[in-house]
Amino acid sequence: MEDTIFAEATARGRAGVAIIRVSGPRARVAAAALAGTLPEPHRAALRTFRSGDDLIDHGLLILFPEGASFTGEEVVEFHVHGSLAITRALLEALGRIEGLRPAAPGEFTRRALLNGRLDLAQVEGLSDLIAAETEAQRKQAIRVFSGELGGKVGMWRKDLVEIAAHVEALIDFSDEDVPATLPEALIARLDGVRESLEAALRGSAAAERIREGFEVAIIGAPNVGKSSLLNHLAGREAAIVSDVPGTTRDVIEVRLELAGLPVTLLDTAGLHEPGDEIERIGIERARARAEAADLRLILLEHDGELPEGVMPDPDDLIVITKTDLTEQPPVHGIGISSRTGAGIDRLLSAIGERLSAKAAGASLVTTQRQRHAVSEALRSIEAAQQFVSRVDEHPEILAEHLRGAITALEMLIGKVDVEHLLDDIFSRFCIGK
Ligand code: GDP
Q1: Is the shortest distance between the CB of 407 and ligand 1 below 6 Å?
Q2: Are 421 and 376 members of one domain?
Q3: Tens of pLDDT, residues 252-311
Q4: How many domains are contained in the chain?
Q5: Nearest CA to ligand 1 atom 27
Q6: Residue 324 in contact with ligand 1 by CB distance below 6 A
Q7: Which terminus of the chain has a lower count of CB atoms within 10 Å, N or C?
Q8: How far is the CA of 412 from the centre of ligand 1 (A)?
Q9: Among 219, 241, 247, 337, which is best to mutate for testing ligand 1, by the most ligand atoms less than 8 A from CB?
Q10: Are residues 256 and 275 both part of a single domain?
Q11: Most confident of 159-168, 185-194, 274-283, 406-415
Q12: What is the DSSP string of 162-224?
């Protein structure tokens, strides 16, 4: 029999309400031990929670029967006042009940997966939903958590299973007078699956950026005003601003939300001739990060020139700094003053527009694990397609590739062979989820 597990589902600390969740075969027993009589399933009822003679708190008790709860097991929830002392007393009281033990991180969700309440993509969606900080992250995660990716995988899988079944039949009846060809309609469906997988893969880079954040690098010569811009945008002293060239030696990061998207701004060390070894390393790192960034802001003073080695690409934004020092408007680029704040809004909307364009093609394939599974499926389908026209010669090879594609898709949603991945996935969860 499974252990019955318990944990605080809400964040620790002082709050109006704290929720403690218990899941497993002895959940009801635990609730009865602390509350006496039990309410009707799914109905919150006010109860007094006691451990022996000790009155712990008055609060709500909710009972979810087996098969109709988050984990699929019998679940009870205690809604108590959110004080450290109350939750501690309640958790200790639960720990004294036989057959109950504290939950490991993500253990409730793990049980939901094992009981088929969620597929593995939904589990990842839930993890992202809890971690979501921006609008775009929330919207993406809720779609994955709602099972949209699992639904798509189900359709791809169904097509592949039907095609595979046809091929298996050709193998079984190869001695008989059945024409050894695949119907055109099935060949077209295989092509359709391949196209959708390709589209999902194309959109995965953008989806991953939404999940992890877009990087925007601020680059330019020493003293051009990089740190000042970063500080202005961050609204706090994140980088040291000084008149001595080359003070920002490392890459400094500030995370913010722009147009609903998560953005990490990088202030790179001044791109100039290095004075010493430490500076050289800083400059190398800055270059590499800037190269890899999703968007680069190239800062120039009014009459300045591009720093050596910097080749703007069409996506980069040219930003002219310190416009408060001159009367002349900039001939090209976006003029800003970190001192007065002039032009900053325009710069932010330009950044937002460029990143939104990059985010627009996002698919539901949001994690590296999912992308890997989709690529595997795609590779197998491409291999299968080589044999479609020669199905009479090598039906078993075609069948093998189709099975490979099906397995890859099943791994995506956690239907097969994912035991080894679970510890890694659930280690990212908090206790109580
Ligand atoms: P970085 O080396 O590119 O990071 O440049 P800093 O941000 O450290 O700025 C170098 C100098 O230019 C500092 O003295 C800043 O106060 C000054 N500075 C930065 N932005 C502005 C601005 O918008 N207007 C004026 N007048 N001075 C600025």
Answers
A1: no
A2: yes
A3: 788 888 888 999 888 875 556 666 777 777 677 777 888 889 999 999 987 667 766 667
A4: 3
A5: 322
A6: yes
A7: N
A8: 50
A9: 241
A10: yes
A11: 185-194
A12: HHHHHHHHHHHTTTTT------HHHHHHHHHHHHHHHHHHHTHHHHHHHHH-EEEEEEESTTS
CA–centroid distance, 54 to ligand 1, in Å, is 64
Q: Which pLDDT belongs to residue 395?
A: 85
- Helices (H) and strands (E) counted in the chain, each on its own, are 14, 12
Please tell me if the CB atom of residue 249 comes closer than 6 angstroms to any atom of ligand 1: no
Ligand 1 centroid, distance to 225 Cα (angstroms): 4
Whether 323 lines ligand 1, by a CB cut-off of 6 Å, is no
> Do 46 and 59 meet the contact criterion of CB atoms below 8 Å apart?
yes
Whether residue 253 is contained in a domain is answered as yes
In the chain, what percentage of residues exceed pLDDT 90?
A: 65
189 lines ligand 1 (CB under 6 A): no
For residue range 222-250, list pLDDT tens digits in order: 889 998 999 888 876 555 555 555 555 56
Is the pLDDT assigned to residue 131 strictly greater than 80?
A: yes
Give the tokens for residue 59. 């609060």
Please state, in angstroms and rounded to a whole number, the distance separating the CA atoms of residues 382 and 98.
55
Domain holding 79, by residue range, is 4-114
- At 245, which amino acid appears? P
Substitution candidate for ligand 1 out of 218, 224, 228 with most atoms within 8 A of CB: 228
Residues 96 and 37 in one domain: yes
Comparing 265-269, 274-278, 335-339, 380-384, which segment has the lowest mean pLDDT?
A: 274-278
Q: Is residue 131 part of a domain?
A: no
Residue 414 lies in a domain: yes
- pLDDT at residue 116 is higher than 80: yes
Q: Is residue 172 part of a domain?
A: yes
Angle, helices 135-145/120-131, rounded to nearest 10 degrees: 160
Single pTM value for the model: 0.80
Cα 239 to averaged position of ligand 1 atoms, centre (Å): 12
Quick check: CB of 248 below 6 Å from ligand 1?
Answer: yes
Which residues is 8 bridged to in the sheet?
20
Give the Å distance between the CA of 240 and the centre of ligand 1: 11
Instruction: Categorize the per-residue pLDDT at 415 as very low, low, confident or very high, splitting at 50, 70 and 90.
Output: confident
Rounded distance between C-alpha atoms, residue 223 and residue 275, angstroms: 16
